[in-house]
Input
Amino acid sequence: MPGRPAGARPSGRSGAPRRLAAAARRTAPTGDRPVRRLPNPRLTGLGGGLFCGAVMLLLGALDQLLFGSSLTFYGVLFLPVSALTALWVRGGDLVIAPVVVPIAFTVGLLALADGSGGVGGHLVGLVTALATQAGWLYGGTLVAGVIATVRRVSMMRRRIAQRRRAAV
Output
């Protein structure tokens, strides 16, 4: 406008709309933030054991119904359940993850174990299944142990870094 200095506002208008627009831009979601695709629950030690045991029992029953007791299929499914258990157990209970995983494997095998002749035959079938599927059992336990160890070491490093920052 002629006769007005550059940058001057016309009379009667405040800069409030501009400030509101600038504030909206600052608080708008940005593309920098990571989007979580998987749930991130934090289970207690008991909750982790119950989760792992229930999932493995369910997978064992489904394997029995759909695939006729395929122990290899059951073992393959055991690995991601072991990893999820170790990832979802809260930091204070990390030591429990490698302990509950083999127990859950055995619980799931209750649905798959061949056994005829009552409780004794079922027990023999369970022990036989544990012996023949020891590789999957050790593999899942190793997965849970490695994940729990890595999580624990990273927690310890964060604490050390926080103490160093607080000391400075």
